[in-house]
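Problem statement: downstream parser choked on a complex file, so we are re-checking the raw output for the nicotinamide-adenine-dinucleotide run. The parser issue turned out to be on our end (a line-ending mismatch), but while we're here, posting the original submission so the record is complete.
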Amino acid sequence: MACLLVTGGAGFIGANFVHYWMNEYPADRVIVLDALTYAGNIQNLAPVNDKSNFRFVHGDIGDTKLVESLLRTENVDTLVHFAAESHVDRSIAGPDAFLETNIMGTHSLLKAARQVWMTEGLNPQNHRFHHVSTDEVFGELTPEEPAFTEKTAYAPNSPYSASKAASDFLVRAYHHTYGLNVTTSNCSNNYGPYHFPEKLIPLVTLNILHGKTLPVYGDGSNVRDWLYVEDHAYGIDLVLKKGKLGETYNIGGVNEWKNIDIVRLICRLVEEKFATDESLKTRFPDCPASRGEANDSLISFVTDRPGHDFRYAIDTTYIRDELGYKPKVTFEEGIRKTLDWYLDNEDWWRAVMDGSYQDWINTNYAQMSR
Ligand code: NAD
Ligand code: TYD
């Protein structure tokens, strides 16, 4: 039996990871440490909240003493670190929180882990610090360039990716210098349930339902490599169970899409849903599909994101050959499951959209629109 401390477990990927883990390994104990920023939502953990082997702790990863005490009292052997400021547009509007949480916060966790597991000798051999990072640390690709491998040089371009790159280096340094048992994974863009509606896929989905503009940055030709979130959790599972200490693994969907094509695809899938389910027209009367009109009439090309990385793509050869990783969910399946989840969980996203995020969206997207 293992005891995991999952930071950022009330966020999008962290919560999906907790659900995945508690389903796969019901005998393990899982503690979530989350500060519940605008992106954290305790409702994301509702399905596990009353389980005896689950505990939620409201706190900041920057609180080193709190983390130390959790590692000690819960006898944690595995720390999986998701907590971060994660939205590129917010990092452009205000980088400070990104440096604080992503860099200083990660360092606080590393210090606590070293102190309790190594210096105090609670678990000098079999501990693990797994750091969840992003493919954005590698910078951007042209259409012709090969996908990022683990050997691609770091070249972060946004305050978000620069802060994640810094945290990756700190994790590496704690392994090299102090012998902390670390692993890191760099993943491509995730999508799926509980995705906060400031990110492209949920934002477009909900805006279509409400007949609101779909803001596509620039000409929509930027490319992202999309992975269903459960397949990210599965990749981290393989790294935790079979990964080499000190190693980094790229996780990706080998599933590249231009933004405009994703937006058009979601428009079409929503139309298909409305064609087969009359009740959707009553629930979402402002959706163009309710009037038999094309959803893509809502698309609006807006001012590009400053420094917008053109293309990300992950080469998954290493994790496939070393750990046998292969995504389980096809994009066709994953995007349909995601749309169904948003249609079935209106209470979840209505509550999220009533929150402070809405004010931010209103101010920032108003400025970005042409
Ligand atoms: P998210 O923004 O949805 O969730 C982040 C969570 O961290 C929230 O619950 C928030 O409350 C919590 N948090 C923030 N600051 C904290 C602090 N100081 N102390 C404690 N908790 C804090 O992010 P996400 O999309 O779930 O991403 C999770 C991790 O995965 C991040 O490290 C991100 O860089 C990485 N990642 C994300 C993607 C993606 O597509 N979303 C892709 C690759 C890697
Ligand atoms: P996002 O979901 O913010 O993820 P990331 O920036 O980490 O890749 O954005 C995905 C892509 O979609 C990115 O190229 C920016 C673009 N985008 C839009 O065109 N319009 C939007 O409203 C948003 C949020 C993103």
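For whoever reads this later: The longest helix spans residues 96-119.
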